[in-house]
DNA sequence: TGAAGCTAGTTTCAACTGAAACTGTTGCAA
DNA sequence: TTGCAACAGTTTCAGTTGAAACTAGCTTCA
């Protein structure tokens, strides 16, 4: 493998002082494009066969083990905001995918459980989802898959931290 | 490093026939969450200081070198659809960030160029964008960054192919 | 107690989105 | 030529989104 003397960076300070940027090498752009294609493909999978959206699928995914959670807990685990969760839940109530009963100790918290119908969907979707994931990673070696796992964890941690930082003054 | 005997997969065929899935280990979900955080952070960067959206920024990015492109070419290079591009352009015309003149040879194609004002924004944003990218990858070693690059390319290629495949019959 | 301030979840509003329909332009073929 | 399919870009429509305001229930502490 030829190894370039120095990693060719996007930065090109150039005598004029104007740095250049190639979108196709810009990490945020690349991640966004990848995410779009993947989400779109996966959404088609869910929607076509079961008529559910990604937020609904995520809720089914976290409740799929039979657990009972509040809307807030679902929001945390699915990385969605509470508005999104609220709306997905109301759709799922309409389509009888979820049961809601208010808690005894705290009546603000609604306890949410999947209906048998939703559990069936879960049981059907999971293999499809995993099959897609397997196909996606089939282009990688076992070692690369492990690397990917580690890199994603690191990037996510760093992205979270940078997002939390108010603003580089 | 302890190496697990076998990669612990999400699949859990289990005697009942119901596979399980942990959202937090599901690649499409992970990529989506990462993309959201990153995009959100970056959008704040653009929006706060320059009042532009991500589509507008992308257009500025591809035209930033001074090139003249048609809307269709912009759509291709930015991975946005033509509707998104059309709308971004009309906003940019309003805010005097872009110039449009119809081509001589084909009057359907509008030739688009950035105004000096937009070029200034470009010159200001690029360092900020690159700084963010640098911070994001600062958690990685040089080698890891190279791996990431390779993995993203592979994943994108595979995702594109799977998206193109009509439907696994 | 009970006023003030949390927290959980919902609603509202204005902006954004994608798919499909549409307008105008070009190229090709009869 | 004219007629028609293909193409570039725009508009429409119906739905989705996120931020902020709001309602309702809980907690604290004077």
From TrEMBL, chains A, B:
Transmembrane segments: none annotated. The keyword Transcription applies. InterPro entries: HTH_MarR-typ, Metal_resp_HTH_trans_reg, WH-like_DNA-bd_sf, WH_DNA-bd_sf. Residues 20-157 form the HTH marR-type domain. It comes from the Bacteria. Keywords: DNA-binding, Transcription, Transcription regulation. This is DNA-binding MarR family transcriptional regulator. It comes from Azospirillum rugosum. The lineage of its organism: Bacteria, Pseudomonadati, Pseudomonadota, Alphaproteobacteria, Rhodospirillales.
């Amino acid at each position: 493998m030829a190894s370039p003397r120095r990693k060719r960076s996007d930065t090109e300070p150039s005598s004029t002082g104007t740095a250049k940027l190639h979108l196709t090498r810009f990490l945020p752009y690349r991640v966004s494009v990848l995410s779009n294609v993947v989400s779109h493909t996966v959404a088609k999978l869910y929607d076509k066969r079961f008529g559910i959206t990604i937020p609904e699928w995520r809720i089914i995914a976290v409740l799929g083990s039979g657990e009972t959670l509040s809307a807030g807990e679902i929001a945390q685990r699915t990385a969605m905001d509470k508005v999104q969760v609220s709306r997905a839940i109301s759709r799922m109530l309409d389509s009888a995918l979820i049961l809601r009963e208010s808690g005894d100790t705290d009546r603000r918290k609604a306890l949410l459980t999947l209906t048998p119908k939703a559990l069936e969907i879960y049981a059907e979707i999971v293999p499809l989802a995993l099959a897609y994931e397997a196909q996606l990673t089939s282009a990688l070696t076992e070692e690369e898959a492990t690397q990917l796992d580690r890199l994603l964890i690191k990037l996510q941690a760093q992205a979270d931290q940078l997002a939390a930082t108010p603003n580089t003054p």
